[in-house]
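Hello forum,

I keep getting stuck at the same step: I have a sequence, I want structure tokens, and every attempt I make locally crashes halfway through. Rather than fight my setup again tonight, could one of you with a working pipeline run this one for me? It's a single chain of 299 residues.
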Amino acid sequence: MNIETLRLISQVIESRSITKVAERENISQSALSQHIKSIELRLGVQLFDRTNRGLIPTVEGETFYRYAKNIVDCYHSLLREFEENKRNFTKVTIYANPLFSSYALPCTLFDLQTHFPEINMDMIVLPSLLVEQKILSGEGDIGFINGKPQSTQLWSQSVLVDPIHLVVKYDSVLPEQILPNDLYLYPLIMSSGRSVTRDTIDEGLRRNNVRIEKLTIKHHMDTIESVKLSVLNGYGLSFLPYSSIKKELYLKQLRIIELKDISIANEFYLILNKQFIAKNKPLNEVVEYLMNVLSDTLC
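Reply #2:
Ran it on my machine without issues. Output:
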């Protein structure tokens, strides 16, 4: 078992096709099939179900993919770091949650780049759970996530509490304050259930005895921007993070409706891999500066 074998089988799992991977990698299908059979024999598991629709990864195949992809990614990170060391090139890779990267971090990154012009700041946007994985694997240097990290191998520091408000189009006739039970009366537009923000909203409402399943949710949207646009068009109310609506509040396009006795907020954390703390002088200087200016430079 070697890195190349792990890489090829990972690609087969992603594309679910031996033919596509063989053509792309310029190897024979029989050779690629032999790689798969060799791994299956060695591990004593079946990685794929062969069907008329192609190769479908088994449960063991999905498990293999998670670990193999991580190993391959770490290996490539190792090669990149060696190459950068040879060139005496300094780079800081920042992984950030989409919400934080879109509405809070851009101004801070500009300040960082101005203060450290010799360092290349590379920001990549991923969901919080994947950000954790990237920092743990060493692919990323600094991470920003929504909520506390799950891994004990990560050092974390809260950097922003971002209130989530119930908002409506500015010229709506709705009152400035409503009771939690009044939520059942109004059409709502919500972000999809595949986000930490949505989980935070649902948890905050349930904590105050609001039954999510009884709400009149007209639409589910995948992005904060699409939810905001729907509210701006008067299609309903929604819960949106303050960082994402500051401009619209200032321009009097949206207004906040106070939800009596309910307080909901995202909390964002800066995370670092404990294993690498104090081992990278340029990174430590960036982190120290970042911690000093973050609260003043967030957009």
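The first helix runs from residue 3 to 15. If your local run keeps crashing, start a new thread with the error log.
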